[in-house]
Amino acid sequence: MFRDVTFGQYYPVDSFVHRMDARAKLILAVLYLVGIFFINSFVGFAWLTIFLLTAIFVSKVPLKSVIKSIKGILVLLIFTAILNVFFTQEGNLLLSWWIFKIYDEGLKFAAKMMLRLTYLVMGTSLLTLTTTAVDLTHAIESLLKPLSYIKFPVHELALIMSLTLSFIPSLIEETDRIIRAQKARGADFDTGGIGQRVKAFVPILIPLLVSSFRRAEELAFAMNSRCYEGSTKRTQFRVQKFSWRDVVGVLFQLVFFVAIFVVFAMQDSWAHVSWLYF
Amino acid sequence: MSIVVKDLNYVYNPKSPFETRALHNVNLTIEDGEFVAIVGHTGSGKSTFVQHLNALIRVQSGSLVVNGINLHDKKCDLKKVRSLVGMVFQYPENQLFADTVAQDVEFGPKNMGMSQEEIDVCVKNAVELVGLDWETVKNKSPFELSGGEKRRVALAGVLAMQPKVLVLDEPTAGLDPVGKHEILTLVKKLNEEQGVTVIMVSHDMNEVYENARRIIVMKDGAVVYDTTPEDLFALEDEIVKMNLEVPYMAQFCNYLRKHHVKLPKGVRTVDEVLKAVNALKGGSNV
Amino acid sequence: MDIIKLVNATYNYKVFNDDGTQSFAVGVDDVTLDVVQGEFLTLVGHNGSGKSTLAKLLNGLFVPQKGSVSVLGMDTANEKNLFEIRKNVGMVFQNPDNQMVASIIEEDVAFGVENVGIPHPELGERVRWALESVGMEQFAKKTPHKLSGGQKQRIAIAGALAIKPQVLVLDESTAMLDPQGRKEVLSVAKKLNEDFGMTVVLITHFMEEVLQSDRVVVMQRGKIIATGTPSEIFSERQLLENAGLKVPRTIELAQKLKESGWQVEENTADAKALGEMICQLL
Question: What is the mean predicted confidence (pLDDT) over C130-154?
């Protein structure tokens, strides 16, 4: 049943992170992503782990839900790991078999790459788990606002995003309905070759297109009837405000950044402590 | 040959936070040639139930046998089940897709693997059965037709598979009175003249009252009433309590009966009620 | 006072035939009609009778090809008037899913108010007032897609209402709803008409919905074929049937009983009241 699944992966609880301003969260997430690429040592990853676990703990989102988000990139993870293990030819040779040669640098590099990707995905999904798609849309509109001075259609862009979001649930339902209706007429989407399977989707795509056009037309009528004339005279219902939570959030991340940079700057002087640097 | 349902249960998204029980110990038998209406509120489980009948939803627990085919069996012949039990969804015109009416109607029969000669006969018969002129519409695009005609083409698309059981979900939704009448007349004809078993889901109690011979009321996934229209709507207070409408003619007859006026059984349409009331004239002082 | 005036308004649809030629399909054909301030006007007709096309002429979504439509003296053919016209004529459509612009209810209701440029705090007050007027205030922060059809239409009405129009047009807004949802929408419309004196134009093919209106207009093939009070219209049973409509069952029974010589009030819509009349005559 599609309709029971809420769109996006928002996890509905009330927490410190949930209550933060979406704009603050969005900025923090971007900084976090940048930060990840400065991390080059396992000490750095240890810091990152502490930061991420704290953030997850404060957000009241179960760790399981955050870890689940890695599932989607599992194939990518394994693929990059294999590539790195077999194609890095630096450091000490650990194993040699047929044409495969495994070096210790390769193992390290692969491990770091996997960690980086994992933390990247976990961090961004923490953002989407604690922020609704609607809030994110508003945050993007607000953050991009300066661009409207150079005639970039920020408002229109945000409206398109918002309309898309509000239409996704009914579009999913509609697709589900059409699939069931065609199945009831004996349509088979699961067997046959590629060509046959693609052909089998025509009876779904055409009705979906037809209904989307009708939807678009009715939506245009509805928007016109409600005096929509572009962004010129519009006011805004939603008021976004930064609060003390956002300040705390920023401070918290600042501490984390300082730590990363310290580790980054000092990695050479720690290099002799092999268990730290590997 | 019939539909036999025993202890049917169904849970959506089992073992997850979204777990919802949709069917709760449903037991019933529908014989060949019946005209059954299923009523109940959104979320009462009626839609989940009817989708079991052609295996769009597979049996989780309990048993369901349609014309001798056990639908609990994972390997049962789906194509056979789906040609046996035709299903017309709400607003079926939204599933039309082909370039011409003929191509759209033959979609089902083609999927069923009929021979081309068989298909040609079935398609033509089905289009004529729903009251459209074959020569006029066969090469027309279904999207050029009027709303009522589109709905009939969609219906023909199901009838062309020659189902023995026809499940209709709100077949008259969105139609005007004349369009409604046409569809209901057609469904009645299929039931009476061709012996097709009809299972109709509807919100319109007047429609149900006048057409069905048996009404199944569902609430919270369970069957709460399974009886004739007359007996069901005689329970006016219970029906109102369930937030369902009492048909106008039932309200009228219930009032008279409560005031000791003797009316014959089975008067449901306006004209039947009129006749029954006029028959009272003889014995009164009017 | 007339709020909306249609004078010989005609609107046809272009049809592109298979052989490349063009022809016209009748939408609205030479219609003259006044919508009076404060009235509850119901427009009935079979599917394709032009009633929905007529609705779209009322706020300039369509502009008549012949004749004219004016709202509060402003011609809909003049594009400069459209903003003012739409501020005064709110419209709700058939499919509740196709009119939502935001995925949070209060933001959807706010859309129109934002468009006419109302600043805070009035903006927030209007949204709250509109939601209260349709009895949906407890859903302000929720998403609409889990609501019933009737509730979604009440949200759509709130969205139109928040702009504070003088006229509310319900363009087949009950057609896709179940009986419960239809009742909800109708009672909201009736309340707006009675409590706020809002002019309501209801477009429908459910004849039961005609009962509560002040005036009924019957359309067939793009033309107005009858105008009158509900009881005047219902007494034209044959005319309605020819136009693809049907009088409600109870009224039909009352009329037929009267024709058979029973002294009952024709146009009785309440089945129990009719039963009572018969009981008294027996």
Answer: 92
